[in-house]
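dumping this here before i forget
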Amino acid sequence: MNLDKSTKRIAKRVKKGFQGYPQISLAYFGASANCATEVVVGYTAEEGATVQEQKFTSKADARKDETIQTTLLKVIERADAKTVVEVAGVAII
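structure:
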């Protein structure tokens, strides 16, 4: 799957807003606000449940890495997530 297709599909899921659980959250981290080298995916099965996290790293911008974006989409689909939340911007680490 190409980069445009996967990022558009993720954005579409994010725009739907809260639809219930299970929920996937995406947070981007990097050395600067222009380059996210890390993505943390959080999975919440139900309200009040412990969040399970998985981290993906890239040498370049993870938001423009086709492999990472395609993997994120597959994680969302396989988890059968009803809600997808994306933290705006890049948190500096």
